[in-house]
Amino acid sequence: MNNIIETHNLSKIYNPDTVPVNAVNGVDLHIEEGEFTALVGPSGSGKTTLLNLIGGLDYPTTGDVKIDGVDITKMSENKLIDFRLHNIGFVFQAYNLIPVLTAAENIEFVMMMLKKTKQERDLRVRELLAEVGLTDKSKNRPTELSGGQQQRVAVARALASKPRFILADEPTANLDSKSTANLLDIMAKLNIEDKMTFIFSTHDQRVIDKARRIVTLVDGKIVSDTKQ
Q1: To pair with 80 at 20 to 30 A between CA atoms, which of 54, 60, 167, 192?
Q2: How far apart are CA 2 and CA 34, in angstroms?
Q3: CA 57, CA 49: separation in Å to the nearest integer?
Q4: Nearest to 56, CA basis, from 26, 98, 87
Q5: How far apart are CA 80 and CA 48, in angstroms?
Q6: For the segment 77-134, what is each residue's pLDDT rounded down to a tens digit?
Q7: How do residues 6-51 score in pLDDT, each as one tens digit?
Q8: Do strands 3-14 and 62-67 pair parallel, antiparallel, or not at all (unpaired)?
Q9: For 153-193, where are the E strands, in sequence order?
Q10: Radius of gyration of the chain (CA)
Q11: 103 CB-side CA count, 13 A
Q12: In this structure, what DSSP letter does residue 74 have?
């Protein structure tokens, strides 16, 4: 298998000049194509910070992050924004949908930034809404959708650019059991059938039970890395 993601001696120190906090501390991590990986650990262990560093949402203090062999830590902000748009899909705990846009328009927005034609956008939106089971909700705005439905739109939006992998930060934290099960079934199907790579940060045992690799962090360090 090919490594999509490689981190080397990755560290992030907050407040270095006052009270330093080693949020991520010397992490070496390789993620292969097609993995379904959960980053777990207590609050403050560095899960979300590590996810943000992998996704180029934050710059490390030391070390590097390579995606398909490209070191994203050396990129300018503008190049990094473009790289994320083309290569990385994000799913957040708070959904982060644009409230004035419909479900279809939220998904389409990513492809507009990619300068896809209207025909390409319409086809991809239809495909993705069907994939997440929301064809009948295409014209609904976020406030007209349940939390689970909003998160499914967020997953569809993350897939819109056909990214190399998906980063999901506590994606089930605001969902009830039924919505969580539905969302995880969709993600697992995408992983198995489309070989889509997923990396979660999570406290949710339901997500952990679905994952095939568990990376445990404590105080910013990997303390175990197991496959199940």
Answers
A1: 192
A2: 9
A3: 9
A4: 87
A5: 19
A6: 999 999 999 999 999 988 999 999 999 999 999 999 999 999 999 999 999 999 999 9
A7: 999 999 999 888 888 899 999 999 999 999 999 999 999 999 999 9
A8: antiparallel
A9: 165-169
A10: 17
A11: 28
A12: G
For residue 51, what are its two tokens?
């996810």
Question: Could you tell me the two tokens for 90?
Answer: 């994000």
The position carrying tokens 């997923």 is 198
DSSP symbols for 109-127: HHHHHTT--HHHHHHHHHH
| CATH code for the part of the protein at 3-227 | 3.40.50.300
CB neighbour class for 53 (10 Å; exposed up to 12, middle 13-18, buried from 19): buried
Alpha helix ranges (H) inside 74-174: 77-87, 103-113, 118-131, 147-159
Angle made by CA atoms 12, 16, 19, in degrees to the nearest 5: 110
Q: How far apart are CA 92 and CA 102, in angstroms?
A: 18
Amino acid at 169: D
Residue with the two structure tokens 């994952």: 211
Q: Are 161 and 85 in contact (CB under 8 A)?
A: yes
Tokens encoding 128: 């993705």
